[in-house]
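Long-time lurker. I teach an intro course on protein structure, and each term I like to show students one example going from raw sequence to a predicted 3D structure in token notation. This year I'd like something fresh instead of my usual example. Would anyone be willing to generate the tokens for the chain below so I can use it in lecture? Attribution to the forum is fine with me.
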Amino acid sequence: MFVVSNITNPTGQVENKIFDYVSIIFSNVSHVNFVLYAIIFTIFALILVYSFNLFISHSCERYGASIQARMGNHLMNGILKIPYEWHLNKNKAELVRFFHSDISRWGRDFIMRILLMSQHIVGLIIPLLLLLIISPIGGASGVLVTSAMGYALMRKLKPKLEETAQVSHDSTKEFVRLSDFVVKGVRDIKLTNIEGEMAEKFSSQFDISAQSQASMNFWRNLQSSAPMLIGQLMMLSLAFALILSDVPNANVASILALVAIVAFRVMPAFNRFWSLYSSMYTVIPWVKGVINTYKELNRNSITSNYGQHTKKNRYIWEEISFTDVSYKYPGSDQNALNGISLKITRGKKYGVIGKSGSGKSTFLDILSGLYSPTDGAIRVDGKIIRANFLSELNLAYVSQAPEMLDGEIWENVALGVKWEEVDKSHLRKVLSMADICEFVDGLAKGIHTKIGYQGVSMSGGQLQRLSIARALYTKPSLLVLDEATSNLDYNSEEAIKETLYNLGEGMTLIIVAHNWETVRECDEIYLVDSGEKKDEGSLDELKTRNRDFFGE
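-- Reply from a regular --
Happy to contribute to a lecture. Here you go:
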């Protein structure tokens, strides 16, 4: 006030102990020089504050981004390591959206805003302290009134913000679910001639999602802009009150100028602070999703090296045995497997046959370490194993419908390996073993050819052979093929069978097939029906003892 009063009314005198001390220091300074010093000091202070704010903002951005990255890495690591049963009831499109959207909102729109709020708090405290020093009663009154009005406003609008945020979250979730079906099921949509119906349904859901987002933005903008209006009304009220009072005009001018300067510094910072604070409520549903997933993964986490297939933890085994192994899917009242007992010896070839739904794939999932038995025991070399130890047995799995990366051929074979670390000679060897090397050599870009989303540029048989090459690239000691040759023509199937049957004594092969002849040359064949092992032996022995099953 002393500074402003001296600028606006150099002949006036303002009573304030602090400014009396300032007056003594600058008693020999002319009014013009004092104004010059004040301007220089103000410029220096502004540069200092701007630099400080820039430094804090940069630090917050970097720190917030690192927190977001760590959370994303932690959750992805947890999702990859958690028991496979957790994934059974999860929507894959939802998980993709979770990593693409939810974690980003948690980091960018929640954690980052908390950090930035701390920056604006500093910008608020300094001028407010100055105001309290100059005018304790007036400054305190202004702070209290503003805070009370802000609190009342927050209580009024907070429920609406949370409500619209939840609606936006739910509509976005449904929009992603529908979009995933439309994109992945476009072939079936066209074949059933429902393009118009699906387009209309998509348009309706898109409108709901857009409207909910617009509603949420409206309430957020309303709350974030209200403090500025409150501050402006308070300044006008103060000016009106001073004019009606008996305060001298010089003091009125100095008081209003002081309030204007403080407001000029405080209100933008306060408005940004308030905007950050209020807008955090619009991302609460996404934040809750991240926190709940974090807790769920930690609650279901395991301590073994599940899924870490490195040379250091590959166990050299000789025999795997199942003793009365049963399995029941989560939420089911009926066992998918009942009392399975069998032995698998290293280096032998085994076949598993049975009708659709008999439990063959469930047996393979347990053998592969995806599921843990509900009852019974699995032993490796006579020792009961811990959960998911089977993942350390150097196993490779080939399914009937393999997942493919939208990338080049070599990326899909040497999955997860950098190009400079790929064993090029071994890569070519496994392509040849999978009877696809000739096809790849005929392509203009060879192994660098992109196969498209889910391998759209290749036939089902070619993708199957590529999947087999991927399995062989890891040099497995146990190779599991779940109907892996069902999409191949007779000549290709025979060529791959001959390759697989002659991989060497160190390779253990387990083949699941509907075609009985596919497993004829196996050392042992297990007949599975209704979740139970009904018989075992050679194919001819099984046919002789189970004529009804084979329809003979």
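Some talking points for your students: Confidence is low (pLDDT under 50) at residues 1-16, 302-312. The radius of gyration is 36 Å.
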